Amino acid sequence: MPNWDTGNTGFMLLATSLVMLMTPGLAFFYGGLVGRKNVLAIMIQSFVSMGWTTVMWYLFGFSLCFSGNVVDGTDLFGGLVGNFNWAFMNGIDINTSSAVVTANGNIPVFGNAGIPMLVFMAYQMMFAIITPALITGAFTNRVRFSAYLIFLTLWLLLVYFPFVHMMWGGGILWQWGVKDFAGGIVVHNIAGMAALASVLYVGKRKILDQGLHSIPLIALGTGLLWFGWYGFNAGSEFAVDQVTANAFLNTDIAASFAAIVWILLAWKIEKKPKFVGLLTGAVAGLATITPAAGYVTTSSAVMIGILAGVICYFAVALKNKLKWDDALDVWGVHGVGGMIGIILLGVFGTLEVNANGADGLLFGGSSFFIKQLLAVVISSVYAFGFTYVMLVIINKITPVKLSQSDEEIGLDEILHGEHAYTDAM
After folding, report:
1. What pLDDT is attached to residue 424?
2. pTM of the prediction?
């Protein structure tokens, strides 16, 4: 029997539970932002990902993400995706360690020798569950449930699984030296760019949805997301040490500064200190610090939070000016937040915080900064292009968009035959 590190393993089980809680939190957050006739339709898109993504993860998703590596030449397509060696959890049992190294050179790839692979698998599964759910806020009230299920399947297979492998599973971006502590590229940037592609393909809603039917529900969702984000970021160290503590604190610092900056901007420009603005700013700060949480100092996290509040606020304003119907601001918050977080890691990253990180531009790491910029371009183009083409293909299989009459009645009734509130009937 392996000598498991019970402290680290227990912490990772807690972190896994926290990240799992984020998906229901996202459902509440999105549910409060839409109108009363469409609450269940948006919430079920998050909850169904908890079920179907888990099935895919067990069958082949985990294997495509983490089996094989580019150094050994054991993954597929030159480091773009893993292989099927661990499909159906083949070769993984209760005694398998999560520590994986390359055969050539014994280079650590991922994991921790004291943590079971089963725990690592469960933790990474929670990331896979929430990432496609983020996208749903962009095309709320406009997409058929059957089309969404196909979208969920193909997007995981063609976008999410490859990027997890490229970044975290020993793929090509990992080999290049690109860094992403907890998902600025792998989660937020690719989800945000997929959301933008979805908005441009699906088009505007035909029926105006007043939205914001329950601000307390939005607040509940934000609280669950913020709480779960400690597991999202601090858990990505896969151990309990000084980097874990730094990532934990940086998460809260960036979210708090971004929230205050956002509400102050709204107060100045919109003449009212709006609660939804405060909540949205916090989520923007959380998304932006994610790739850098374990690689930067706390003072840098302050700057990242401030910049997140400013840049994401004006990104949403730009979206409104361009009249993109990104209903719940997925691109402006998660896409832009993840994007600038990747870039700012290339500026503020320092080896003094994490020996497994890299020095950014402020510490002489100009080459690392360029790598981060290239990663932004590659991930953005890839996610946008694949998503748009996918929607075109899905529309040939089953209609993606709903009719005007369907939108008018409401998706809860049309798609699911249920109602969140009796007065929405």
Report:
1. 55
2. 0.96
